[in-house]
Amino acid sequence: MESEGNMNCSKKTNQSNLHQRRLRADSSGYMPGLDGLRALAVFAVIAYHLNLTWAPGGLLGVSLFFVLSGYLITNILLKQWEHSGAIDLKDFWLRRARRLLPALFLMLAGVMLWGMLWVPERLAALKQEVLAAVFYISNWYLVFHQISYFESFGPPSPLGHLWSLAVEEQFYLFWPLLLGWGLRCFRKRKWLIGGTTAVALISAAAMALLYIPGHDPSRVYYGTDTRAFSLLVGAVLAMVWPGRKMNPDLSGKKRLALDGAGSLGLLVVLLMIGKTSQYQTSLYQGGLLLFSVAGACLVAVLAHPASYLGRFFGWGPLRWLGECSYGIYLWHYPVIILTNPMVNTEGFNLSRTLWQIALSIILAALSRYLIEDPIRYGRRKRVRRRRSARQWWQRPLAHSAKITFSIGLMFLLLLVTPDEGTQISAKALAESQVNAEQAQAQTPGKGKEDSAVKGEPAAADKKSDIKGDEITVIGDSLMINVDPVLQKRLPGIVIDAQIGRQMYQAPEVISRLREEGKLGKIIIIELGTNGSFTEKQLTETLNSLQGTAEIVLVNTRVPRPWETVVNEKLTKVAESYPKTKLIDWHSVSSGHDDYFYSDGVHLTQTGVEAYGEILIEALSSYQPGKKSCYIKT
């Protein structure tokens, strides 16, 4: 009976302790709905990195994180100022370090070990990116090395997503200093709010002015100066809507208006995630600012204790995912990049996608419970009291020792791992050019079986009145691969191809070829491999070809997000533009992994021959005045 009484007493004590912890959480301003919003944000980003067609704007999840960070960090700093009349910078920065560094170091160590075991040829580049990540300058590293987030070739880096953490950490470093200065200089809060709003608008204006439509937007996408407005929108919200002053008791009408505003903000957020593309001009000319404001409205409502929408987002499983969102964000991109096949022409794979998501969540949970929480919160006091009675070798490591050990481990990995070549795309291009030149050197007396691609029609034997000197080809590195095949089959053809060429450069190339007298009556345009373009740029290119008898567009297969955007624009314009046909290389190459080198873009000899065949077949079927058609093999 005595033991049973002790058990009941213990149970009541545990329940009381749990209740006290909940009260402390509430009093400290914990907002469970915001954890649910973190879950939405991180899964939007995951959907984007998985190239899921129903979430082309999933990259906007990063802007949600920025707004959340700006709001929560400013809330903490303002609360500290009101309680003590100062901002304890040392305490703030140490808390941020304990929160962020352990998980980051663990992920970086995991990626480096993976690289040593499976992709040693990429270690040289990874070392530089790890150093940039450790010092939270990944975004500027990518800017100054001109590494595109949207138009990069070769295998994408498993650390490419760390640019956003760099932006946030730079905000954590400078914003407390600026906020403290503003609080000392401006006694009236309205001046501080106005100044912060003005800086946010300047940042958004800088993005709009620096962005050039149809060009790679990576500079404005990465830059701290051009992304700060999302963080500052959250900061302004914290100044006008501080969590500690929210009244949980609202009348029915006020609560209805509150949830109505939150629902409107949520609708805008979801619509933009589902409908926005990273290649839309409007996104960089006010769209991201609009999204940030909508996100701030949603944050304001979810932070309020009276909101029903906040209760929904505070649902247990959603809240748990939000609590793990930092780890999920860290791990998901390396998992996706390092487990995706190098060449994939089969399209979306549901089972692989599900286990990639599951593995990311598992790794994040292990990181949280085994590494992050012990370092962030420490051990129980009773363990600390017993520590002094132990010998020095029996005592657990202090936080500073753990962090020092982690940093030492990272630099050890950087020093001991061997350097290997990293230019996979350049290597693939060089090899494909060598193979193409070998094909050019082959004797012309080959039979039908040798000249045609296996499983494809032998269009080489089709006779056509088209002559090579009537044809001009404008392309990028893929056309450099195919050049020898076309020169051999269509003597006199003019091929103007250049590595990295994009659509916005085409009108200038056309003008030069016209001046040189090299513009034929049939023009083939193969562009889009290196990045997207606007419909206006494509139309301007076609308009510069007035008087041309026939225009042939070739769509693309490239394992990057712009593939769908490029192909949709080419299809739309080809359907409406006169004397234009579209060659569907994307469909022809479907299921043919053997056409591509490991970068999934540049062509093997088999791919070169297949590409040449569909071009020659399209030219063989040319009839003056014929309307647009689609060549599908």
What does this structure look like?
The chain is mostly helical. The chain folds into two domains: 2-25 and 34-416, no CATH class; 425-631, 3-Layer(aba) Sandwich (Rossmann fold), CATH 3.40.50. It is built from 26 helices and six strands. It has helices at 2-27, 32-49, 61-84, 89-118, 123-134, 138-144, 163-185, 189-210, 218-222, 224-240, 252-275, 281-303, 308-313, 316-323, 325-339, 350-377, 381-387, 399-416, 424-441, 448-451, 477-489, 506-515, 535-543, 562-576, 585-588, 605-620; strands at residues 471-475, 494-497, 522-526, 550-554, 580-583, 630-631. It has a six-stranded parallel sheet with strand order 2-1-3-4-5-6, sandwiched between helices. Helix 23 (535-543) links the parallel strand 3 (522-526) and strand 4. Helix 3 (61-84) crosses helix 12, helix 7 (163-185) packs across helix 10 (224-240) and helix 21 crosses helix 26 (605-620). Residues 1-7, 9-28, 380-387, 420-426, 436-463 and 625-630 have low confidence and may be disordered.
Q: How would you write the strand order of the largest sheet?
A: 2-1-3-4-5-6
Q: How far from one another are the termini?
A: 84 Å
Oligomer: single chain
List the uncertain runs: 1-7, 9-28, 380-387, 420-426, 436-463, 625-630
Helix content: 55-70%
Mean pLDDT: 82
Shape: elongated
Give me the Rg, rounded: 29 Å
Let me know the largest β-sheet. Answer: 6 strands, parallel
Structural class: mainly alpha
Structural domain tally: 2
